[in-house]
UniProtKB/TrEMBL annotation:
Protein name per the record: Alkyl hydroperoxide reductase AhpD
Keyword Oxidoreductase assigned: yes
Pfam families xrefs: CMD (PF02627)
Gene: ahpD
Organism superkingdom: Bacteria
Enzyme class: oxidoreductase
Described function: Antioxidant protein with alkyl hydroperoxidase activity. Required for the reduction of the AhpC active site cysteine residues and for the regeneration of the AhpC enzyme activity.
Catalytic residues of the enzyme: C131 (proton donor), C134 (cysteine sulfenic acid (-soh) intermediate)
């Protein structure tokens, strides 16, 4: 499994991250498509090249081409919207909410997979991106669709583990004097 290569690359002080990464694919609330789409979208959101390469290689074995594309689409769209809506929120001026966003988000109309899966991936990427407005919006959509809190939390758990793994791998590359691969 490609994620084993990621675990092997983690330094000894990140043992808890290694254990957490190892447990992500063994149990949880997410379906296989939801899990691997979340892993792929979050790996892309972390911008950590070694993590993305290994995760993407493994995700291809578990996702249809449509689901693979949709997970990457969620990562791309949330990279844009997380910045936009986080900035609007941080400006703390409600008049900005009355202005049109002017962002192209056609993929949201038909993401190519079940809407719940796309919302889970968008939520998880928004957790990596740190956008409270996006998290709230996606969580509400998921809860309205009947998704359990445990499932929402599982997607956030995947995001948090991958974020920690990416930060650690990037720190190791910096300490070794090389740019992240």
């Amino acid at each position: 499994m490609a994620l084993d290569a990621v675990r092997a690359a983690l330094p000894p002080h990140a043992k808890d991250l290694s254990l957490a990464l190892g447990s992500l694919t063994r149990h949880g609330e997410l379906t296989e498509q939801q899990l691997w789409g979340t892993l792929l979208a979050c790996a892309e959101a972390t911008r950590c090249a070694p993590l993305l390469r290994e995760t993407e290689a493994e995700a291809r074995k578990h996702l249809t081409e449509d689901a693979h594309r949709a997970a990457r689409t969620a990562a791309a769209l949330m990279a844009m919207t997380n910045v936009f809506y986080r900035a609007r929120h941080l400006l703390d001026d409600p008049e900005y909410d009355a202005l049109p966003a002017g962002l192209r988000m056609n993929a949201l109309r038909d993401p190519g997979v079940d809407r719940v899966d796309f919302e889970l991936w968008s939520l998880a990427v928004s957790a990596v991106g740190g956008c409270g407005r996006c998290l709230t919006s996606h969580e509400r959509a998921l809860r309205q669709a009947g998704v359990r809190r445990e499932t929402v939390q599982d997607a956030i758990r995947v995001a948090s583990v991958l974020s920690g793994v990416a930060a650690t791998l990037d720190a190791e590359a910096a300490l070794a004097g090389s740019a992240p691969a």
